[in-house]
């Protein structure tokens, strides 16, 4: 099956700065593909090259198998939704959605039919006569997407489209966007610095750092099986330590941290004497009142609660061990540690399989 979008060895330089450094990826038809990374990593530059607003220094961009490098932006089968939605305030909703169709010279009756169909698809039937300023933020978002979708693009590009919304609406729109993408069955390419947006909505995510893709995979792959220290540190929360490998047996290693702690972890390519970094997720660490309850774990520590971070079901606790290291630990949702307070002594433990180890850069 021909991908809807394919980027091959894409490079973009601005003077001496390489913003995009030899990036290749393909997006299958009807899928939701996200490019996730910190500000300045090059993700918007990729988006602007796909849309045709920037020319690549080298490489190729193909849509439905054909190169679009010589195709101007207004002739490419792509549309773009920006964070600032650029809806026309003097037009009605129907006029906004039908704007691109009018420019194409479509008959008035056909435009009306397509606009009504799009309003149905975005769950806002019958609002065509309203003005833009009568809509909520989430409704404006959906209208901006409908305005693009009536043009039936092969690929819809979305550049941080939820960035201007408040937190509660952003959470709601994550679910809405995924449903809209399925309803229109159009390929979405989404860029964001917000890992929660990418994890919730995407079929595949590319994690980008300093102009390159560090890893491409499903949200589960990136979260549970990171390929690089950057991905392990960028996706989700992690406790991390640096140290030297003391022992390596198969894919299990023992590392001695800078503060003298011995830890067992999984790190298949590491050898004795290597400098390394360990990542352990807060939800992988178990709390107990007594050390005996954690006897089956490879790594066990005693510590003092220094802070409670209450956030309902996502509550956490900070624990300082005897070596002075502070660990972040999820509180179990069972409520058995609901009375935990600052200054309490606790025991914590985790398995070598829950600790991911990488060679230090």
UniProtKB/TrEMBL annotation:
<dbReference type="Pfam" id="PF08402">
    <property type="entry name" value="TOBE_2"/>
</dbReference>
<dbReference type="InterPro" id="IPR003593">
    <property type="entry name" value="AAA+_ATPase"/>
</dbReference>
<dbReference type="Pfam" id="PF00005">
    <property type="entry name" value="ABC_tran"/>
</dbReference>
<dbReference type="InterPro" id="IPR003439">
    <property type="entry name" value="ABC_transporter-like_ATP-bd"/>
</dbReference>
<keyword id="KW-0067">ATP-binding</keyword>
<keyword id="KW-0547">Nucleotide-binding</keyword>
<dbReference type="InterPro" id="IPR027417">
    <property type="entry name" value="P-loop_NTPase"/>
</dbReference>
<dbReference type="InterPro" id="IPR050093">
    <property type="entry name" value="ABC_SmlMolc_Importer"/>
</dbReference>
<feature type="domain" description="ABC transporter">
    <location>
        <begin position="5"/>
        <end position="235"/>
    </location>
</feature>
<dbReference type="InterPro" id="IPR013611">
    <property type="entry name" value="Transp-assoc_OB_typ2"/>
</dbReference>
<dbReference type="InterPro" id="IPR017871">
    <property type="entry name" value="ABC_transporter-like_CS"/>
</dbReference>
<keyword id="KW-0813">Transport</keyword>
<protein>
    <submittedName>
        <fullName>ABC transporter ATP-binding protein</fullName>
    </submittedName>
</protein>
<dbReference type="GO" id="GO:0005524">
    <property type="term" value="F:ATP binding"/>
</dbReference>
<dbReference type="InterPro" id="IPR008995">
    <property type="entry name" value="Mo/tungstate-bd_C_term_dom"/>
</dbReference>
């Amino acid at each position: 099956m021909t991908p809807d979008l394919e980027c091959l060895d894409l490079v973009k330089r601005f003077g001496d700065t390489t913003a995009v450094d030899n990036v290749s990826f393909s997006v299958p038809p009807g899928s939701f593909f996200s490019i996730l990374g910190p500000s300045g990593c090059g993700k918007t530059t990729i988006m602007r090259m796909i849309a045709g607003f920037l020319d690549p220094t080298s490489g190729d961009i193909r849509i439905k198998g054909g190169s679009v490098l010589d195709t101007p932006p207004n002739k490419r089968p792509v549309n773009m939704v920006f964070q600032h939605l650029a809806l026309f305030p003097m037009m009605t909703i129907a006029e906004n959605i039908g704007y691109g169709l009018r420019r194409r010279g479509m008959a008035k009756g056909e435009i009306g039919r397509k606009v009504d169909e799009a309003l149905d698809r975005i769950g806002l039937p019958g609002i065509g006569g309203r003005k833009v300023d009568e809509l909520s933020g989430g409704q404006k978002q959906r209208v901006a997407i409908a305005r693009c979708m009536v043009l039936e693009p092969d690929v819809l590009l979305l550049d941080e489209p939820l960035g201007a919304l408040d937190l509660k609406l952003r959470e709601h729109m994550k679910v809405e966007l995924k449903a809209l993408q399925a309803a229109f069955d159009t390929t979405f390419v989404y860029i964001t610095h917000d890992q929660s947006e990418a994890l919730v909505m995407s079929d595949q995510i590319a994690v980008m750092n300093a102009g390159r893709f560090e890893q491409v995979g499903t949200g589960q792959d990136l979260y549970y099986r990171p390929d690089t220290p950057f991905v392990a540190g960028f996706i989700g929360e992690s406790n991390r330590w640096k140290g030297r490998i003391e022992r390596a047996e198969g894919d299990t290693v023992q590392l001695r941290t800078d503060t003298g702690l011995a830890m067992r972890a999984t790190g298949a390519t590491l050898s004795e004497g290597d400098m390394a970094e360990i990542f352990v997720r807060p939800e992988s660490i178990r709390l107990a009142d007594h050390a005996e309850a954690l006897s089956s774990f490879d790594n066990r520590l005693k510590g003092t609660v220094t802070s409670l971070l209450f956030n309902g079901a996502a509550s956490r606790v900070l624990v300082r061990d005897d070596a002075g290291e502070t660990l972040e630990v999820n509180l179990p949702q069972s409520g058995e540690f609901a009375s935990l307070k600052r200054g309490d002594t606790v025991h914590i433990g985790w398995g070598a399989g829950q600790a991911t180890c990488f060679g230090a850069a």
